[in-house]
């Protein structure tokens, strides 16, 4: 069965620096680099989708709040590292981007969004409800967003438990997910209805595409963006209200934005200092979601976050099943630009 998601590419669009011992107690004194990761997803039918847009050089303008932001979180970005520039280097025009999914509205995630004038801008409804109520401590600089931000906005509500990740077993997940979607079921070769339940003759084939509940009991509510089970959006509070995370069932890949600062730093979570904890919008949800990522990894789900080391992300993407040569070429070109 052909995959709906044809390729996934990674781009590091600027970075910030901080000291490990300023973030966590009882750790080595060392400076760490946190890339602003952007993911380019290509859907067989709906084209190119960006997940976040990294830093932009606009944030380097001489404004007091930008200076304060840089003081507490020193960041670095050049025009050549902006996502639009890197995409052009790949031969992809900004106008080809059909959708931009913004995990949240911090500067290292929205810095390049103005470069995509034709894209629909997707956020969770929980995030959008907070849009007119942000305070300075929320680190949302609205001037970095396009002037027509609201006009192009597509707020989604991840509220469908029948599109969950990890609750129950695969067959019941498929039954619930497909119930009431006669049009889609008619296109599924080898499927038929019996007493209201979807029974699958080719369970192995379909499970690779629709096995959204992976046996972990996570109970995450999701939104099926394209109604084909290929890209699910979950809303995870903690670092920010309504933070949009992405699950790609075909690859068992969970893209978790800023749920943590790096998968390799999960081990230090219990040692987090008070100041970085204050940055989290909801500390209780932050710790809960850290446990969620650990459980997913234990269950064999591949997890990446926005500030993971580039070499870790590239290694995971390179190991995905049926990766395309175009995907590999894009990673190599991006590495040349960034390094």
What does this structure look like?
The chain is α/β, with parallel strands linked by helices. The protein has one domain (5-168, 213-338): Ribonuclease Z/Hydroxyacylglutathione hydrolase-like (Metallo-beta-lactamase, Chain A). The protein contains 12 helices and 14 strands. A 7-stranded mixed β-sheet has the order 4-1-2-3-5-6-7. β12 and β13 (253-255) form a beta hairpin. It starts with a strand and ends with a helix. The model is unreliable at 167-215 and 328-339 (pLDDT under 50).
Terminal CA distance: 37 Å
Radius of gyration: 20 Å
The level 1 CATH classification is Alpha Beta
**What profile does the largest beta sheet have?**
7 strands, mixed
Quick recap:
The chain is an alpha/beta fold and about 350 residues long. The chain contains twelve helices and 14 strands.
Feature tags:
339 residues; alpha/beta; Metallo-beta-lactamase, Chain A; 7-stranded mixed beta sheet; 5-stranded mixed beta sheet; 12 helices; 14 strands; globular; disordered C terminus
Show the helix and strand layout.
Elements: E1 5-19, H1 20-23, E2 31-43, E3 47-51, H2 64-72, E4 75-76, H3 83-89, E5 97-101, H4 107-110, E6 120-124, H5 125-129, E7 153-156, H6 170-178, H7 182-187, E8 191-194, E9 197-200, H8 203-210, E10 222-224, E11 232-236, E12 243-248, E13 253-255, H9 274-279, H10 283-298, E14 302-304, H11 310-318, H12 325-338
Parallel strand pairs: 3-5, 5-6, 6-7, 13-14
Antiparallel strand pairs: 1-2, 1-4, 2-3, 8-9, 10-11, 11-12, 12-13
């Amino acid at each position: 069965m052909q995959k709906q998601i044809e390729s996934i590419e990674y781009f590091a669009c600027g970075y910030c620096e901080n000291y490990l011992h300023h973030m966590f107690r009882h750790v080595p004194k060392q400076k760490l680099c946190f890339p602003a990761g952007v993911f380019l997803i290509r859907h067989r039918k709906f084209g190119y989708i960006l997940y976040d847009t990294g830093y932009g050089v606009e944030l380097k303008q001489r404004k007091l709040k930008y200076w304060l932001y840089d003081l507490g979180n020193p960041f670095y970005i050049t025009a050549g590292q902006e996502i639009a520039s890197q995409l052009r280097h790949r031969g992809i025009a900004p106008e080809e981007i059909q959708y931009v999914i913004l995990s949240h509205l911090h500067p290292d995630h929205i810095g390049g969004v103005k470069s995509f004038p034709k894209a629909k801008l997707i956020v969770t409804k929980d995030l959008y409800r907070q849009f007119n109520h942000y305070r300075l401590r929320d680190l949302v600089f609205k001037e970095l967003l396009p002037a027509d931000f609201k006009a192009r906005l597509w707020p989604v509500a991840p509220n469908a438990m029948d599109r969950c990740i990890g609750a129950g077993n695969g067959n019941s997940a498929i039954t619930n997910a497909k119930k009431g979607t006669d049009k889609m079921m008619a296109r599924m070769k080898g499927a038929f209805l019996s007493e209201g339940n979807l029974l699958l003759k080719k369970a192995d084939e379909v499970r690779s595409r629709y096995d959204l509940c992976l046996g972990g009991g996570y109970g995450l509510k999701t939104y099926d963006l394209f109604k084909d089970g290929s890209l699910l959006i979950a809303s995870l509070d903690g670092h920010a209200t309504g933070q949009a995370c992405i699950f790609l069932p075909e690859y068992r890949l969970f893209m978790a934005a800023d749920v943590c600062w790096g998968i390799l730093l999960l081990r230090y979570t219990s040692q987090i200092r008070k100041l970085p904890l204050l940055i989290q919008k909801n500390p209780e949800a932050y710790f809960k979601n850290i446990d969620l990522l650990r459980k997913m990894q234990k269950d064999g789900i591949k997890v990446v976050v926005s500030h993971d080391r580039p070499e870790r992300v590239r290694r995971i993407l390179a190991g995905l099943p049926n990766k395309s040569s175009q995907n590999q070429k894009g990673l190599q070109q991006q590495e040349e630009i960034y390094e």
